[in-house]
Amino acid sequence: MKGTQRIIIYQKDIQRITGKKEKASRNLLKKIKKSLNKTEESFISLDEFCIYTGLDREEVIDFMKD
Question: Does the reported pTM lie above 0.85?
Fold first, then answer.
């Protein structure tokens, strides 16, 4: 892989990956944080997102590329 790869998933990434709208993406991010007992200020890692959603890591990474 070239360049720097992010390990944090943001709401915009979820929108791109799932095709959900902004509010639904935010809600999914909150659900993931709640299931992991994280605070609202905490980050969700790429691996945590993939485990929660059951999506393949490499496919998710493709959507995260700018």
Answer: yes
Q: How far apart are CA 47 and CA 60, in angstroms?
A: 10
Bridge partners of 44? 9
What residue segments make up the domains of the chain, in order of their start? 8-64
Long-range contacts of 14-23 (CB under 8 A, 24+ apart): 14/49, 16/63, 16/64, 17/55, 17/60, 17/63
pLDDT tens digit sequence for 18-54: 999 999 999 999 999 999 999 999 999 999 999 999 9
